[in-house]
Amino acid sequence: MLNQNKTPLLDALKVNAARPHTPFYTPGHKQGEGISQPLADLLGKAVFRADLTELSDLDNLFAPQGVIQEAQQLAAEAFGALQTWFLVNGSTCGIEAAILATCGTGDKIILPRNVHSSAIAGLILSGAIPIFLNPEYDPVLDIAHSITPNAVESALQQHPDAKAVLVVYPTYYGVCGDLSAIANITHQYNIPLLVDEAHGAHFAFHPELPTPALTAGADLTVQSIHKVLGAMTQASMLHIQGNRIDCDRISKALQLVQSTSPSYLLLASLDAARQQMAMHGKMLMSHTLQLTEEARTRISQIPELSVLQMPQLEESPGFVALDKTRLTVTVSGLGLTGFEADEILDEKFAVTAEFASLQHLTFIISLGNTPADIEKLVQGFTTLAKEYRRSNLTVKNQVGLNLDRTLDYALELSPREAFFAVSEILPLTQTNKRICAEIVCPYPPGIPVLMPGEVITKSVLEYLQQIQAMGASISGCNDISLKTLKVVK
Q: At residue 400, does pLDDT exceed 70?
């Protein structure tokens, strides 16, 4: 057992930030001396004194032998991994590296169609061929859950030459599928199970949370420590276990997708967040769960509002556990879209959700929230229900086709081929049945509606136009106004 109370990287950064010396190395602001005054006024000088580069005492992220290596070993033990890599380019680079390390050009990878755009980037970079599975869909809630073990087994029977399976666990709504069963099936084919666990970094620290991906049998998992724990934005980790994945390939892949000038502020925040959870994680998560339960109970008692709960009446292989710290509130009973409710809560009550969808608002409740936050959230919804409710409006009928339903998708070219193909830009109305050459996704949650290589269909075009009209922002594409699309020429 390692001493989890240690913070080797944080301690080394603290010493070097305070050490009197004359810097003739990057960054150019020289420990804050060259920082503009408005930025110094906002952040203070201390943060810039610690904004250092790869000094001898601070180790090297791409060839760690000192404090970074020790910090990563501590993290591996705390999160239950064989080996852990710190990520400064977010979980995005971890997902890309996972695909690059397991798939080459023309190799097949099985994954859900509602993956994050980072997985699509991984397909483009690697040249892998996606075998997409539709996730289980709840037509009442209009929410996609996880892919099912049966779907994975069927896909592997049809594509036994697949090199990997990738699963999103949990979904943006906090829904977890049967990862243990999927791991067992995947391992029967002796291929690795990769998990986008960006929103599940806290699972290892409390028994009332879903089973962590590594415990469920994943070979590799990527976690956004910044999303739900106490690290700075972009600070994430990649963990592996077992021998199905070559550690050297992971290291080399990360060198392709991470900055060669990593921020030591981000790296130190990972070290500190790990120590915090290793020493106090259960207590912090107990407090967080108490806050969430209070919010869930009180909001569910407000007329015409409901919160996402575990299925009660029948088994759902795409929904076997729910992250209780994730709160999804259905607002369609008020005659409001999630986008409208989000705007009202933000502007009128200073209550800001993680993301909005057609019928729902989703909130992340974490170790940083307080009882006062929950009170503001509940009061915001109470007033929303009393003063902003609309009658004679059925939100479900406002859009004929929703993102979480099964849209008409057909992959004509590999994402890599389409991305690098000669392309042209056409008015949106002229792109039906053409092959898309760019990523188009509402954000958040960053799930692409179109990706390079897919045939553009009328139903997809209608959905994009309708959801944009309701207030969703479109990202990833060349024209975010969505008047034009880039297609293969």
A: no
Q: How far apart are CA 109 and CA 358, in angstroms?
A: 31
pLDDT tens for 178-236 read 999 999 999 999 999 999 999 999 999 999 999 999 999 999 999 999 999 999 999 99
Band (402; pLDDT cuts 50, 70, 90): very low
Q: Are strands 355-356 and 423-427 parallel, antiparallel or unpaired?
A: unpaired
Query: Per-residue pLDDT tens for 122-140?
Result: 999 999 999 999 999 888 8
Helices (H), 350-456: 371-387, 415-420
CA distances for 293 relative to 205, 228, 286, 288, 303, angstroms = 18, 17, 11, 9, 18
* Helix (H) and strand (E) counts in the chain: 16, 19
- DSSP 8-state symbol, 211: P
**Tokens representing residue 285 in the block:** 């998560």
Integer Cα distance of 87 and 152 in angstroms: 29
CA dist 426 → 390, 408, 484 (Å): 39, 21, 5
Q: Report helix, strand or coil for 257.
A: helix
Using DSSP bridges, classify how beta strands 220-223 and 193-196 pair: parallel, antiparallel or unpaired.
Answer: parallel
Which helix (H) or strand (E) segment holds residue 291: the answer is helix 264-300
Residue 482 to residues 295, 409, 476: CA-CA distances in angstroms?
Answer: 37, 19, 11
Instruction: Name, in order, each residue with C-beta under 8 angstroms of 301's C-beta and a sequence gap of 6 or more.
Output: none
Q: How many residues does the chain have?
A: 489
Strands 484-488 and 423-427 come out as antiparallel
DSSP letter, residue 442: E
Burial of 143 (0-12, 13-18, 19+ CB in 10 A): buried
- Token pair, residue 467, equals 């959801």
End-to-end CA distance of the chain: 59
CA distance 437 to 220: 30
Rounded to 10 deg, the angle between the 338-349 and 371-387 helix axes is 120
Q: Identify the helix (H) or strand (E) that includes residue 441.
A: strand 441-443
Q: Report the run of H or E that residue 326 belongs to, with start and end.
A: strand 326-330
By C-alpha distance, which of 122, 128, 125, 123 is closest to 108? 128
CA distances from 261 to 49, 53, 154 (A): 16, 7, 44
Distances in Å between the alpha carbon of 411 and those of 8, 225, 417, 465? 48, 33, 11, 22
Strands 108-112 and 129-133: parallel
What residues contact residue 354 under an 8 Å CB cut-off, 6+ apart?
172, 362, 363, 364, 444
